[in-house]
Design brief:
heterodimer, A: 90 residues, globular, B: 162 residues, mainly alpha, Transcription Termination Factor Rho, Rna-binding Domain, Chain A, Domain 1, two-stranded antiparallel ribbon, 2 strands, DNA binding (chain A), nucleus (chain A), BAF_prot (chain A), Barrier-to-autointegration factor-like protein (chain A)
């Protein structure tokens, strides 16, 4: 995806610190709530899951769809967001 | 096949490797995802197997019992363990061999499957191949018979002319 949202650019621009999970690109209120219910309340926890899945975007997108009910677009955006963040800061 | 949820993390990891699924550590948060992927892979494998009459692919069929009790059946090198045991014997063979050797269709192995997603216990065709070939030979033999009789009839007009 060549076009990235402002949300994406904001997230990738700096270390995530304690940002909430809704700060991730693709994760809105509804998805954020579902993730929080499962314990993924902060962005770094979702990052942890991304890393556990060996930073595999497809695998992570599949997990995100199953865990939060995200659609393909949302899952893809989130995975891309996390990948670029990792490329910059990990 | 034991249920995936009862397997240990390590066993799941090994299964994932067997199916060639790239994966990370099998831990609490990743387990359900990997179980799902394994179930999909297993279902896909089961679906891909019952392709009986494809020329290009390998044929896998399960012989529950010796079909037609042919003695020559045992001589074939492929059917090494053809005992009348209760366990189904899965034998893989090339369909090329199946169609080229005359014994093959004579033996006509009964294609039985114990897999749930298989559509029918018999092949996908309504009439098995061996029966079709048999019918073909019967029809061909019939035509030859007619032809031969025609020939003998042909001599009559010549006689009349002479």
């Amino acid at each position: 995806m060549s076009t990235t949202s402002q949300k994406h650019r904001d997230f990738v621009a700096e270390p995530m610190g304690d940002k909430p999970v809704t700060a991730l690109s693709g994760i809105g209120e509804a998805l954020g709530k579902k993730l929080e219910e499962q314990g993924f309340d902060k962005a770094f926890v979702v990052l942890g899951q991304f890393l556990l899945l060996r930073k595999d975007r497809e695998l992570f997108a599949e997990w995100l769809k199953d865990a939060s009910g995200a659609n393909a677009r949302q899952a893809g955006a989130c995975s891309q967001c996390l990948q670029e963040w990792c490329d910059a800061f990990l | 096949m034991a249920t995936l949820s009862s397997k240990s993390n390590q066993e799941l990891s090994q299964l994932l490797d067997e199916y060639g699924i790239k994966h990370g550590p099998v831990v609490g948060s990743t387990r359900s995802l990997y179980e799902k992927k394994l179930r999909d892979a297993m279902a896909k494998e089961r679906k891909a197997k019952p392709s009986y009459y494809r020329e290009e692919e390998e044929v896998t069929y399960i012989n529950h019992r010796r079909p037609f009790g042919h003695g020559s059946y045992r001589d074939r090198s492929e059917y090494r363990d053809l005992d009348t045991t209760d366990e189904p014997i899965v034998i893989r063979t090339q369909t090329q061999q199946y169609s080229s050797t005359p014994q093959a269709w004579h033996a006509a192995p009964v294609y039985e499957t114990q897999r749930k997603p298989a559509p029918k216990p018999t092949s996908a065709r309504f009439v098995p191949v061996w029966l079709q070939i048999l019918l073909f030979l019967i029809v061909a033999g019939f035509l030859v018979f007619i032809f031969i009789n025609m020939e003998s009839e042909d001599t009559d007009p010549f006689k009349k002319l002479a």
